[in-house]
Amino acid sequence: MMAAGSASGYLVVGTLWLLGLTVALLEVRIPLARRTAFYLGLASAAVATTLAGFMWPGDSQLVLAGGGLRVDGFALFIQVFVLLGVVGSLLLGLHEPERAEAGTTGLVLMAAAGACLLAMTSDLMGMLVSFVGTMIPLWAIAAIHPARNGREAALKGMVVGSLAAALTGLGAALILARTGTTRLAGIAAYLQSADWIGSDPLLVAGLALVLAGLGCFVAAVPFHMWFVDVVEGLPVPAGLLLSGGVMAAALAAVTRVLLVGFQPVVLSGFGYLSWTAILHALGLAALLICNALALVQRRLKRMLAYLAAGQAGLVLVTLAAIGDLAATGQQTVVSRAIGGVLVFLAVHALNWVGLFVAVEVIAGGVKLDPKISRLSGLAHRHPWMAVAIGLAVLCMAGMPLTAGFFSRLYLLSAMVEAGWTATAAVAALSLGLVLVMSLGLVATMVMQPVKPDDLRISPALVLVAALSSVTILALGILPGGILDVAIRSAASLLGMV
User: Fold this and answer.
1) Tens digit of pLDDT for each residue in 155-180?
2) Which phi and psi (to 5°) does residue 102 adopt?
3) Count of structural domains within the chain
4) Does the predicted TM-score (pTM) go above 0.85?
């Protein structure tokens, strides 16, 4: 019999999806009701956030007949911060609601429902369905967006998304053929009792294909370009959801797959590359390549998309280190390290809200990705808005007194505890690229000549900027509370509660 908490877990996803569909139909079929539909969508996201927060820590019971979904503290923690990002994205849409195409708000809610489902999924095929269900609404938004590259972005996203789905699905099929299940718990049990995995080519191929598919979905190098193009082709609310909330949910799903389903592979013998070695290389490549590419961008949304892909690389490297830690049986250390990953993902989702405030400020009604140069002299024209944007930028670089400092420190600490000191040093140095770029943005707002003031600062932008700044400072000055909650959530993932 399904527990009440589990039923509530379905309510978060079901409410978002059904109301998203309703809002989309209202926007398209009844143009005069668009503003009402928008407020309904905003209220839906706020209610879903409250429900997920109220349910935490939830129970660790497997739900659905075969345990395909898991409503636990780990899933609910991610859901809360993804949904907070959704609320922020919709509030940004209040800045110039007339620019939004009919149906955008409803599609954003449907994509958010897919991201929430993704956080709960404990089955490879269910995870594949959740990824596709999350991306299809975003591709639709890109296709209807009147930007010059909107349809191109939708096409690129569909092509790479189809490749990712094919790789993941084929890998899951091979794993099913060998293990008899696609449930993560069942896969882990089979791998735990299996002989050396290198002697089973079918299983090796299945694991490799699943890793490749998941790498496509989280914009790992060399598949990062599709992600950047899609973010650039989306309107601000949807671009924020993809690079902030959806990225956080996707990385949480990868965490569940690796540390619950594939963890026994780390100890299954020598003579092949385990997933920790693969993620180690992919993560470092993303850190260095994506951060370097972000440094030379001239358009703001492309820069933020490259940075989001670089942040994903930092998480992938940390997950590889946690895999090594888990192989030694240090459960308490592993739980703390996963808690650090959760804090990082939460800060990422909230930080990107503040960064996309900058995009909305300088967009100026144009449909294209705004140039960074439009920030010139912002501190002289709108000083408080420049302060809010500057805080978000410095948080992204991991500066002290912002939430970004401790969230990155937790990841570097996990690498050091795993004995990956050189990797931690490279990761810390890669943040230097982000710092250089961040200081460049601040200098543009403070030191560059003032341009003609054609910017419009609405109350919605002021509200989002203020909330983002307060959150960044609060989590930076008092990080202990969220870390404690994250560690308890990580323990539920590992079955310790």
Assistant:
1) 888 888 899 999 999 999 999 998 88
2) -60, 130
3) 1
4) yes
